[in-house]
Amino acid sequence: MPIPPDPVEISWFAALCDDDYAYLGVPDPLLASSWEHCREIVLRAEHGGFDNCLLPSGYALGIDSVAFGGGVAPELERLALLVAVRCGEVWPPMLARQLATLDQMLGGRLTINIISSDLAGAPLESGPRYRRSIEVMEILRALLDGEPVVHRGEFYQLEVEPPRLRTVSGRCPLFYFGGFSEDAREAAARAADVFLMWPDRIEMVQETMADMKQRAARHGRTLRFGYRVHVIVRESEAAAQQAARQLVSRLDDESGEAIRRRSLDHGSAGVRRQAEVRGVADDEGYVEPNLWTGIGRARSGCGAALVGDPDQILAKLDRYAELGIEAFILSGYPHADEADLFARDVLPNLNHGPLSRAR
Hints:
Layout: E1 9-13, H1 35-48, E2 52-55, H2 65-72, E3 80-86, H3 92-105, E4 110-115, H4 126-144, E5 149-152, E6 157-160, E7 175-178, H5 182-191, E8 194-197, H6 202-218, E9 224-233, H7 237-247, H8 253-261, H9 269-279, E10 286-288, E11 291-292, E12 305-308, H10 310-323, E13 325-331, H11 335-345
Parallel strand pairs: 1-2, 1-13, 2-3, 3-4, 4-7, 7-8, 8-9, 9-12, 9-13
Antiparallel strand pairs: 5-6, 10-11, 11-12
Helix pairs in contact: 1-11, 3-4, 4-5, 5-6
C-alpha cells in the first residue's frame, strides 16, 4: 500500500455536542453527550493509536470542551487534545490561563480550535465576528508565548502581563481555524496556523488551498492545512455503501432540517457550501468516488464521509496528503465503534504522528 512521504496527523472526534447516532437523526439516550460517553470515545482514540482528538464546542448542545478536557487529561498518556474555544465567551487573558493550565495537564499536548460563530443570545455579523477572532488570536498568542500585551482594538482594550503559568513548551499551541467566507479566510490568513477545510471535490480543495496560500503570503505568513471529514470503512466497498445507506435509513427531511438548525453556525458560508456540494451529488449522494454527502442531510457543518474499503480510504487520504494536507480530523457513527474500525483497518497503514510546531 502507498504511504505518504511525510507523516500526517490523524485525529478523531469526541461527540461533545449531541452528535452521535446509530441511525442519523434518531436520538439514542446511550449516545447522548455525557461525561461517560464522551470519555469513552476519547479513550478509544487513545488506545486505537490516534494522534489527536477534537473536543467541539456548542452552547445549546452537549457539554463544555475546556471543562471536559481538564477532566479527561489525566487519563491520557499520549493523545493530544484539539480543544475548541469560541471567541468572545471568555476574556482572553483568563482564557490564556485556562489553556496554559490544560496544556500542563496534558504534558504539552494541547492544540486549539478557534471558533468564530455566534455566541448564544448575541448574534453578530460576519465581519465583526471574524475581526473579534483575529484580536483573540493575537492576544492569546502573545500571552501564551510569554509576552506582555498592550492591545487597543475594536473589541478588546487591555494592558496585561502574561500569566505566570506557561505551556510546557513555553510557546502558544497551534491554532486550527476553519471558515469558507471572505472574512473567515482573511482571519485565518492573518492569525491562524492550520486552516481547516470541510469535505469538497478534489478540485475545489486544490482551489481553496491555492487561495489561502496567496492570502497568507500577502501577510508575510504561511499556513498549514487540515481536512475535517467523516469516514465509513468496511471490509468491502459494497459493505461500506450499505452501512452508509443504513445510517440514513430512518432519517426524514424534516428531522434533518431541525437538527441542522440547532447549530449556531447553521447559516454560515461554509454550511451553505456543504449544501451546494450535496446538491450536485448523484442519486446515492456521492459527489466523487468514495465521497458521500448523505451525512449533511442531518448535520450542520462537516457534511460528507469517505466511504469504502480500507485500501480506498487509504488511497483517498494519500491523495489529500499529496495536495499538502497535513492534518485530518475524522469521525464516524457511532463514534466509538467507527474509531475502532478505522484504528484496526486503516491507521496501521498510515504514516502518521502529531503535528509539530517545527516544519
